[in-house]
Write a structure and sequence with these properties.
The protein has about 375 residues and is α/β, with parallel strands linked by helices. The strands form 2 sheets. Strands 1, 2, 3, 4, 5, 14, 15 and 16 form an 8-stranded mixed sheet that branches. An 8-stranded mixed sheet has the order 6-7-8-9-10-11-12-13.
């Protein structure tokens, strides 16, 4: 049994932004107890937080961490299999290299969990996974796999295939490809239930968990009309879990999103507006979505924003008017819920994974630094 006691720290309440003295006992990778004075065995390992601010490790619920590797060039770019616009059977886990130097950046910046998955050049891109940011064997870093099927609407699939005069050439073409696949999967499920399948189909097998409500449909959509199309597709196929990724114009349909209870993984914010779909991107959109009661998570879309910029994005959002509580919740509790991992990560709570970041000041102060990062109860970074 491994144990660690964090003492002399200030526990940051994400909801209220209040801080209170606290000690945290970690046992076998889980948070065992939280209190102001925990009785301990003299042999217990103690981490002195030195009045540092303690918060849950941050979560980025939309990245390509380890799939688009840094400092490798084209040979390390594995996010888009552009040999075919419909590739639901691709698994992000098969492309993630935990030796990517960006994992070190994540740990140093207090990011303890991410979603990593295929890119957006295909109408159907493949399966994403939720992972911890420390380790050398990806299979041992998994939180949940798969967590969602990636589809993409708008400019990216059209600019990838349309310029070659290959489908999809239009938005209609994108959605037709998606519908065709989902219809085939419905028929495949029926055939399986009738014991009439004699040969498995890897593409259709990948869709079965989605149509059975076991994972999310994660849709790359910037424009308001594409967001509405994503909702239309989800409802046509009775898909219960839909996440809008990027959501540049989500604020224009915020009432519709609220009525449908659909979350938005918003960003990235620090890239130039290099395509038309990004024209209206601003922090005001995030504020409108939050005020409308929509679950929002800020994202880096690493490496399009570097993973260590997640906290910076939160700080900038607060400077533009987002409440500190909403900013921190967007990269902790909200992100965990969007990944459907809310029972394990995103909170400092008994029974949760001991994923913790300790800062020498308030996390939303740009001058604060991460002093310690703890993942699964182990200190994986010490400043």
């Amino acid at each position: 049994m491994s144990e660690l006691l964090i003492k002399n720290g200030l526990l940051l309440d994400i909801s209220s932004n209040a801080v209170n003295p606290a000690e945290i006992l970690i046992r076998d990778g889980k948070i065992a107890a939280i209190g102001t004075k925990i009785e301990i065995d003299s042999k217990l390992k103690v981490l002195d937080a030195k009045d540092g601010y303690i918060m849950p490790g941050m979560i980025d619920c939309h990245t390509h961490l380890g799939i688009i590797e840094e400092a490798t060039g084209k040979i390390g770019v594995d996010n888009n299999e552009t040999s075919n616009p419909v590739t639901p059977h691709l698994r992000g886990i098969d492309a993630i290299n935990p030796m990517d130097i960006a994992f070190g950046d994540a740990v140093r910046s207090g990011v303890t969990s991410v979603m990593s998955g295929p890119g957006s050049n295909n109408a159907v891109g493949g399966l994403s996974t939720a992972i911890k940011t420390h380790g050398s064997i990806i299979d041992k870093m998994i939180i949940k796999n798969p967590i969602g099927l990636k589809i993409a609407l708008g400019e990216n699939p059209i600019s990838t295939y349309g310029i070659k005069d290959k489908a999809p050439v239009t938005r209609m073409g994108i959605t037709a490809l998606i519908r065709e696949l989902f219809m085939q999967a419905q028929d495949y499920i029926y055939q399986k239930e009738q014991n009439k399948i004699t040969e498995r189909n890897i593409k259709l097998e990948s869709i079965v968990p989605l149509l059975k409500g076991e994972m999310s449909l994660r849709c790359h959509a910037h424009r308001a009309d594409d967001i509405v199309t994503a909702i239309r597709i989800a409802e046509e196929f009775n898909i219960k879990r839909l996440v809008i990724e990027h959501g540049t114009e989500a604020h224009l349909v915020k009432d519709f999103l609220k009525d449908k209870d659909i979350p938005v993984a918003f960003g990235p914010m620090l890239t130039p507006r290099i395509k038309m779909e990004l024209k209206n991107r601003c922090y005001g959109s995030v504020i409108e979505l939050v005020e409308a009661g929509i679950k929002v998570s800020l994202i880096t879309d690493h490496p399009y924003n570097s993973i260590d910029q997640l906290r910076t994005i939160c700080i900038l959002a607060v400077s533009e008017g987002l409440s500190p509580a909403a900013a921190l919740r967007s990269v902790t509790e909200n992100a965990a819920e969007i990944l459907h991992c809310e029972g394990r990560i995103g909170k400092i709570h008994p029974g949760f994974d001991a994923d913790i970041a300790i800062y020498n000041g308030h996390p939303l102060n740009i001058n604060s630094n991460v002093q310690y990062t703890i993942i699964n109860g182990s200190i994986v970074y010490s400043r």
